Amino acid sequence: MSAHRDAKRNLPTKTCPVCRREFAWRKKWARDWDSVRYCSNACRKKASSAKASP
Length: 54
Known about the structure:
Layout: H1 2-9, E1 13-15, E2 22-24, H2 41-52
Antiparallel strand pairs: 1-2
Protein name: DUF2256 domain-containing protein
Pfam families: DUF2256
InterPro entries: UCP037205
């Protein structure tokens, strides 16, 4: 079981610009990890609504 935990610890991470949380790589982001910026859809919506507000 410890090998699984070690593997999760070694995943690349990024920091969400909206909530400042650190989030780890996920398999569904494998093809476009370089373009992933937000940790969740909620943060993505907050960022786009902040840009749209004057």
